[in-house]
Fold these 2 entries.
Entry 1:
Amino acid sequence: MEKTRMYVMMGNEVEDPVISSAYLCEFKDLEIKTILLDELFKTPDAPKPSEELVITFETKSLKEIREMVSSIDIVDAFNHVEENPYPRLYKIVAEAALLKLNFDIAQKAFVKCDDYQGICYVNRVKKLDDPQKQKAEIAIYFKDFDEAEEIYKKIDRKDLALDMRVRSGDWVKVLQLVDQGVGNDELINIAYNNIGDYYGERFRWKNAASHYALAQNNEALAEAYYKIEDFDSLSKMIDILPEGSPLLESLGEKFQGVGLCEEAVQSYIRSGNVRAAVDCCVLLNQWNQAVELAEKHNFVQIEGLLSRYASVLMEENKTVEAIQLYRKANRNTEAAKILNNIAKDLSRSQASPIMMKKIYILAALEVDSYKKRILEAQITGTGTTAQTLDSLITSDINTMSDKTLDNPWRGAEAYHFYLMAQRQLYEGDYEAALKTSLRLSEYENILETRDIYSLIALAAYYSGYYKECSKALVKLENIQGQSEEDKEAYEELAVSIFSKNPPRDPKPRMVKCPGRNCANNVSDIVTNCSECGSNFPACMVSGRPIMEKNYVQCKTCKHKAVEDEQRGSE
């Protein structure tokens, strides 16, 4: 081959040269495949389509036999090939003989080229009793399915056309033929299902889903919805599928994989696998739902699992996560205990009183949520009011091992009054500060004794209540565990104060005790009546004892405030 000329030699004969600058790639079945490398190297980053770069040339003998089978008798063409035998040439003669329904020549040609399948095909076509059917089969052989269908329709054999379309896998044409009155519903479903498979193999899942729906192939439809992330349609299938269907469990796994706990649980429940539903809730950290399912279906293992998980979180110092875990699981008392423990730890490190107050409020709200839930559960059930109260009392006894939860608002009250007393003291309202700080003596188990009585002594001194100041200093002198230096300092302070001011209080303002059937008069700074033993609740706005009935009560914490004080604070 010269640079621009290609020669083909047949024995000792040389065919006419072909003008081409392409490079040889393959020589097979009397065809020469070449490639235009020069064109390819011009634009290697953006090559042209392969159809433009690859050129196929036919040899002289191949061209001649193609012309002969179309212009002369097929027998003469066969005899010509006999003189110059080659399998590809016999193949061309055999196919041309089929088109002319000359089955004898076709069979001989297939024998010569060792095409066993071709021989069997000719034998099968020869057995057909109708030439039109033979023509249709030959059209199918050459993949001219439309021509074959037209032939079958002309002889009124749409059933054969339908069978041909099914065998060729042209399911769209199958549906068209079914619309013309051929086939049955089962074939329609098969067609839709295969069309869905076609789109699915090409990742066109939206089209696949529509055809799977028409085919009523729920398993494939669920997979298609999952692929296109159409979880709304996927969730609708939960109610469509019959209970106990294996596909429901598969749906549950799909929903669980994307974090849709509610749908996953619904799928598992309808499939009858309650254990999988509980495990799903645990895996997705939906502990409240997990506990509800466990209680409903008597899964006692959930309690141990919940405790272990919370223990792991606490060991990893993930206290907030542990609280959230218990809250989601409706274990409000456990969350409250952790919050109280946090508050106790912070109190030892002299943390901000405002922060301490907030933590105690959170703990109290958790306990109130627990009591409210128990009460609602009992009221909406079949129990009586007495049973409801008994249940609340029993639950309190069983769950309140931490005594600080008996009255969950005490911690918040303590720091509320502690902050209020100091604010009043700095504002110069010394008598109000004394009334508020005297209330702090009820919270010695929460606040430091030194802090409580130091505040009382200071407020009493500045307000002129030296008797109360003396009591507070005596308490400070007798604090256990303090150093001798501190004790002597308190004694010296008491001497310096009371050497100038006798330990007497100013004349108190007396008011009638609001207790029932009590005629005693009490000082307006005391917190209880010495006669009837009535305790006077504190006004949460001013800190003073409430001895009248003109007060309002918070719906959440149930604490009270005098209306006049509340308006004054506003």
Entry 2:
Amino acid sequence: MLRRCKSVVGRLRHVKLSSTRSLSTSQCLHDYTAVNEPIRDYLPGSTDRERLEKRLSYFSNTCSDVPIVIGDDVYTTSDVRHQVMPFDHQKKLAKFSYADKALIQKAIDVAVKAQRDWERQSYEKRADVFLRAAKLMQEEYRMDLMASTMLGQAKTIIQAEIDSTCELIDFLNFNVMFGHEATKYQPISLGSITNTLSYRGMEGFWASVTPFNFTAIGGNLSSAPAIAGNTVLWKPSDTAVLSNYTVFKIFREAGLPPGVINFVPADGPVFGGAVTSSPHLAGVNFTGSVETFETLWKSISANLPNFRSFPRMIGECGGKNYHLVHPSADLDSVVNGTIMSAFEFGGQKCSACSRLFLPQSCAQEVIDRLVAIQEEIKVGSPLLVENYLSAVIDDKAFTRIKGYIDHARSSESCEILAGGGYDDSKGYFIQPTIILCKDPNDKLLTEEIFGPVLSIYVYDEKEVVDLLTRIDSNTRYGLTGSIYAKDSEVVDSWKDFLRFSAGNMYINDKSTGSVVGQQPFGGARKSGTNDKAGGPHYLLKFMSPLAIKTNSATLGDWRYKYMTEK
């Protein structure tokens, strides 16, 4: 049963495009330079910490209603779901419902209708909405983003800060700047010929399918097409629905017109089937599993004759990321970087290190130090500052990760060096686990686990070519990788050999932590389409340029000169 609620305008402070809150930067974008949002420290007694604790208390004691929002109307259905706190899964954080096929079709109709007017707005006016949103996120709603992310996705203070505020704000500000810079180019004009290039949005609508692990990705995948002049159906992850809805509300408060971004929680296959069968689909902007992305791609391929335009596919699908250590490496950097990359946010970053390759000459020292640190790491509620990581996202993730640990426990070629425990009685808790693998083809070294499990392989320094070949070829992914070496010749050689093993490569640094505008992010192979979110060319993926030639001279004859002159 469908229930239509009052207009979303009644729930948000809606701001028109001509609002006096408009930022001066968007009126003269040629002078606008984005800068990265500073990371705050939330020290005890600070104003930020006090404000955060108040919002944590509010959201912890409230089961928030999250509706379906299509145009200016909100809906609920009888297919009711709840988002729970992963570290205390009996506590319901948000109540939401799935859109059915009819509602998804309604959202498509609304988006297609809204696209024409939105696309015809100037780039400056569209950009202004998202610059305002970034400003609202910096102060007024920063703690709402933080609290909803910490509670809903089990992120510690620092992990929520770098994701739901800093990276999200950066995406908005830098996308505006990059989009403006990318559209500066105009073609050569000669004599009576004036040539122009109009950077249009695309006909139809974009479907943005977003993951649980980064609130910022939800905001980016939905807003980037909109900045470029498109309209969007945003399907959030069930396990990030509250933080994503918070982002959506900020967009609307910043002046985003109804229908430009439509918030559509839904069952994955139902949503995918509806959008990929619509002739108006312009593209899919996706982050998630390889299998889901392949399913969407196959559905689009099967429906190609029915589309008005060929849909574009943008996808980021995870990785099997490595830290490769040379005997000349700085071991402090190796140990600390590996701990951070493998275990922060429970290894649930697409770029997290899950395989560590150590030379025999220093392997034992590194292993001993890793194990010693693992024994110090505390796991528990993200509300307790002493905890380095919290629960994994849900029961499915818990079961999957547990299966890999159980495999290590029963395998003759694997040895659990530290951790290996798990308990889902209260929250979906898994200990940071370090495993030594003797078989380089073990699934712990080839398959994505997406949890706090680090697999180590010790290599013979005389067989480094064989090692490099295995790193490059024994997994289907190509997202991130780190090379630790002080020897510059080794760095150059390994970097060249492994140049297709990663879309983001780090030298003497951990494999996580890409920053918008500094390390544009994305990988190839089955890690995705490598469109480099956070980089200068990303917004061009959502544009369909129109070239216009204007001739101010009279065309006096249809014949060429050589035809008339003798």
